[in-house]
Fold:
Amino acid sequence: MELLQLLISGIAQGCVYGLLALGFVLIYKATEQVNFAQGDIMMMGTFFAFAFITGTSKPVSWWSAPIAILAICVGAALFYLLHKRRLPAWRDTAASQPRLQQVTAGGAYWLNLLAIVALYAVAAIFAIRFLSGFGMSWWLALPLAAICGGVLGYTLDAVIVRRIIGQPQFAVVILTLALGFMMRAVAGAIWGADDKGFTTPYSGDVIRFGGGEGTNPVVIGVPSLVIIGGTAVMIIGLYLFFRFTKIGVAMQAASQNQLAAYYMGIPVKYVFSMIWAISAAVATVAGILLVPKLEVFSPEVGLLSITAFAAAVVGGFGSLPGAILGGLIIGIAEALSTRYLPDILIDIVGLDGSFANKIPQVIAYIIMLAVLIIRPQGLFAQIQRKKV
Amino acid sequence: MAEPILALRNVETYYGPVMAIRGVSLQVAEGDIVTVLGANGAGKTTILKTISGVMDPTKGQVLFEGREIQKRDPDWVARHGIAHVPEGREVFPFLTVRENLMMGAYTRSDHAGVRQDVDMVYGYFPVLKERADQQAAYLSGGQQQMLAIGRALMARPRVMLLDEPSLGLSPILVKEIYEIIGRLNREQKVTMLLVEQNANMALQTAKYGYVLEVGRIVMDDTCVRLMESDDVKEFYLGIKDDAVRGKRRWRRKKTWR
Structure:
């Protein structure tokens, strides 16, 4: 029953890829931006949870809370003042170009922006420090870190990414890549680049069944099951949210027809930032659930998002169920190929062992390339006819 | 004319380097249907986009209920009672008809009123009720146009901006749509600014008309008198007056500049 174990483990890993891919697709569908910082947002969220659970070595500094609140208040006031100036509302028309220049021209604008960013950074640092002074339980840390991750995602869009709307796609790609590197550096500077881990109520638990004379019992790690269950809960929650709440339907509307959404009075900029927040929160939960399975994590864990990107492409960029299914395909393929493929390659194809062992590490990209060649729109692409 | 609910004062708008509107002034009185006629590229759509805040004018003012709104975000404008029925329908293709209508009421929070208005829209457009749970992408062009109008109606607008409701529809459907537009104006007291290429329908429905040419208003009058004007007859209604002894059109080179 080795196969069952491998499958469960692969599905769990695939769920994490799928949730990350979901974030990619959500943001892409809405704003046509690819957020390459997705994995690093997950990494930051996981580190938030780590900080909340373990508690820092320093004692709780009572003054961090008031400082954080003060900084947030000043930042909010400045943010309000800045928003009274016009920002580019609609990015597609050539008409937005002069408006963009007009808004960004003033030196005071950048000064204000810098002040806001600095204040929010201060607020964030002190808030995180305050919260991480206790060493709280995993149950409390999970939702709290998800909220912090969501705030991080919202802020990234509202303060930074939104400002290059109307520029070429390429600018967004480089910007998000750079943001990812910065977050990795920040996490390394704060928490150190070495492997970390935290314990959860179910770390190391296993379920054993079957097995008798001559056969080994099936051993399934509880962390994997929790990932699968958590993913199912989140997908159902997201489905209900997008289907039945007003803001959820408005998010769909804004990603289907941005201009019409503006005409309806939907605050499109806010809606897009909320989509970033949802993606970030989902990624954070995925990261936190992944830790007990991997047992360790480091700032490099964000590189998972490259595999998740492959999953999104396999599923058809732009399809939400496709993102999850693509993630599952990649996860299962990785698990199975790691166990079986090297033997096959060595025994049957006659490859060198050290080479054959490396193949499963790139299986995700091999699948992605195969899908791109055979079915470029992705396996589960939503058919969409562009109106002429 | 009474105090206009919507007025443009010497508005100039650029599409990038191209000047699309070159100093347009117009007024819409409360309760009226006002139409702007013009050929392709005259700047009709740009006028509506400027009003709803999607484009910003470089010069001039847009006044709504006496307030300057030209620097406002589109969602602010929509919230304060200007509903835009965009050119080419622009429905939300993967939302159901009902969800599309609910998005029209996004800025409202009175649930009872919204439900009542959904029924009101279904009353005007019974076909939308039949297809309430279908995705909007599967509606025909005419039905999508009805949905776009119904969706704008859901906001309970003070002013409705209609951008070429006849675009791509059969003559019978055009007539049907215009009848409903007229009824909406009479029964729901919606003020309308109607932009059209189909001058015949527009002049019959509206009360006052402006003729736009290459970004300038070249004529304005009541629709009854516009319909009698030789230039409008010749250039927009396609009626050639034979009494002028078959004088050929191209010989009377007409410019307004």
